[in-house]
Amino acid sequence: MAAPHAACRVGSRPPKKKCPAPFISKTFDLLDAAEAGGATGVVSWNSGGNGFVVWSPAEFSKLMLPKYFKHNNFSSFVRQLNTYGFKKTASKRWEFKHDKFLKGFKHLLVEISRKKVEPSMFPQLLEASRGGHRDGITSLMKENQTLRRERMELKLQISHFKTMEMRLLECISHYMTTRCQGQTQENILEGAKIENF
After folding, report:
1. Dihedral angle over CA of 59, 61, 67, 70, nearest 10
2. For residues 72 and 61, is the Cβ–Cβ distance under 8 A?
């Protein structure tokens, strides 16, 4: 007698179908609903269908986010996108892309996963300082020097900008004073013309 097929055995389960992360599915559904519902002025797929654009973050937060997520915070939405490897691709608008997030290709969503958290450098640095590893200590000292130098440069820039601000305020004050004096002289001349008439 032949052995029964693995899926037919008593107590065996069918293989689990991999599902996309809820955040990714909801974002995809949100875009499809926006397109179907005529809300493309708020959010839409980009022209190539390989990304999406949030045209109005305020309206998106108010109208779209609460329908699909438990919040209306645009910054949280963007942070979530980042954890799944989405990239902001335009400097002057909120456009995001991911290689596997494509219009009409919902089946690819299962391939999008959270980014792996990189291990912290702190334990390695702590170990280096305890173990007497010269390289670790030297690296920390160089980093410390770099940070101090950058801090000093920033302090100098702040000082420079404060000086520029004071000069600008002096110029504005001088301009306003001379303008007011000019108007006063014009008023006096106007008054003299009226009296001579």
Report:
1. -170
2. yes
